[in-house]
Every structure is written in structure tokens, then in C-alpha cells.
Design a protein that fits this description.
This is tRNA threonylcarbamoyladenosine biosynthesis protein TsaB. The chain is built from six helices and ten strands. It folds into two domains: 108 residues, 2-Layer Sandwich (Nucleotidyltransferase, domain 5); 89 residues, 2-Layer Sandwich (Nucleotidyltransferase, domain 5). Helix 1 crosses helix 2 and helix 3 crosses helix 6. With 237 residues, the protein is α/β, with parallel strands linked by helices.
């Protein structure tokens, strides 16, 4: 892992974040930039690379938050990731924003049972239920998140129905819990409300070693809502 250099970016929610793994160390920048992702993300990338004296060509792969999240934010992140990766001829690792928040709960409080919920507006949330297990491989021991409830979009009541009997040991993360009255008193809430690129790096490392990378032209954002679509760069539909 000390020889692995990864850059992660995320603009899928009101958070805008960049993180770098280089020589076994992580550096990161997190901002709230709800309407200025397109103006902030590239300067943040330049800053974090310059801070560690790294250029794009030195990266092993580019990591990005592929959603779910706001339509505009997910689209911006996917477009920036596609442009950077094509320009530097880098493989891409696509990471779930919901799983990234579960990873944050693990790193901050050793939580291995997490329910994630991001406010999707229109009385809906993006949510998933995840349980972690440690997996040994030839590359070392990694944390693997398994879906108990697959990530989806729906009303707060839909999440409650799928959870069934609530278990106190499950940790809740994301903006969805405070946004809707039906969810406010459920679970063990944390201060983790938005995804961050630094935790995407943790998820991306085992994906890199397991060769779970894609080419930049194959980037497909995850919106979850059926009425939105994604078009690749011109000439690559």
C-alpha cells in the first residue's frame, strides 16, 4: 500500500472533497460548496497534488464518488473524473457515496453495522444498510461491506418497512435522518452527515488490488432515480 498513489474526488452532495493517498499517507480537503462544485473541485485537486509534490501522471488510479446524490453533483463529479482520467490515461475506481459514509463510521467509531440515508428531497432518501466483515487476501486484511438492504431511493417509510424491527446496535449516518420526522428518533446517530473523499480512498485500496477498475469512457454515475440519464463524452455514447 505504501507504493500506491490514489487521488479521490467527490461532488455528489453539497460536500466537495478531494483526498490523496501517497507513500502510505492521506491528505484531504473538504468543503461545503453546494452551488460551486465546478469552480472549486479542480483548484482543490491542484492544491492537494502540489502539497504532496505529485502530478496526475504519477497516480495509479483516479477514484470518484459515483453517487447516489444530487443529479447535478453526481454529473459534475463523473465529468471531472472522466476528463482527468482520460487526460492522464488513468484507470478509474468508482465508489458508492453511501458506502463511503459507512466506512467513515468504521474509521471514526469502529462501527461495523451501518444504515446510511442521504436526503434526496421530494420526500425521498437514498439509503442502504451495510454490514462489514474483515477479509484476508494475498494483499493483506481488508474491510468488506456487504449489503443487507441494497442502495435505493424511496420514502423514509419505505426504509422503515425494509428495516423491520429496529436494532439498537446499528449506527445511522447521513443527512436523511435529521431531514424527516419519521427517522429522527431511530438508531444511533453520528456526526457523519455527508460523504468524504478520504474514506473513498479506504474503499478503493482493496478494489485496486482486486483489479476492480474501469476505463474512463465506461464511467456510469449512479442516480437511482429512473427519470435522469447520463450521456458520455461526445463520440463515446
Amino acid at each position: 500500500m505504501n507504493n500506491l498513489t490514489l487521488l479521490a474526488i467527490d461532488t455528489s452532495t453539497e460536500a466537495c472533497s478531494v483526498a490523496l493517498l501517497h507513500k502510505g499517507e492521506k491528505t484531504y480537503l473538504d468543503e461545503i460548496a453546494e452551488r460551486s462544485h465546478t469552480k472549486r473541485i479542480l483548484p482543490m485537486v491542484d492544491h492537494i497534488l502540489a502539497q504532496s509534490d505529485v502530478h496526475l501522471g504519477q497516480l495509479d488510479a483516479l477514484v470518484f464518488g459515483r453517487g447516489p446524490g444530487s443529479f447535478t453533483g453526481v454529473r459534475v463529479g463523473a465529468g471531472i473524473a472522466q476528463g482527468l482520467a482520460l487526460g492522464a490515461d488513468l484507470p478509474v475506481i468508482a465508489v458508492s457515496n453511501l458506502t463511503a459514509m459507512a466506512q467513515a463510521a468504521y474509521e471514526q467509531m469502529q462501527a461495523t453495522q451501518v444504515v446510511t440515508a442521504i436526503d434526496a428531497r421530494m420526500n425521498e432518501i437514498y439509503f442502504s444498510q451495510l454490514k462489514a466483515e474483515k477479509v484476508r487476501s494475498e494483499f493483506g486484511e481488508f474491510l468488506q461491506w456487504n449489503e443487507v438492504i441494497a442502495e435505493q431511493v424511496g420514502t423514509p417509510n419505505r426504509l422503515i418497512e425494509q428495516l423491520g424491527q429496529w436494532l439498537d446496535e446499528w449506527v445511522t449516518v447521513g443527512t436523511g435522518w435529521a431531514a424527516y420526522n419519521a427517522l429522527q428518533l431511530m438508531g444511533k446517530n453520528t456526526t457523519i452527515t455527508l460523504p468524504s473523499a478520504q474514506y473513498m480512498l479506504s474503499l478503493a485500496v482493496p478494489m485496486w488490488y482486486q483489479r476492480q477498475t474501469i476505463h474512463a469512457v465506461d464511467i456510469e454515475p449512479v442516480y437511482l432515480r429512473n427519470e435522469v440519464t447520463w450521456k458520455k463524452l461526445p463520440g463515446r455514447e
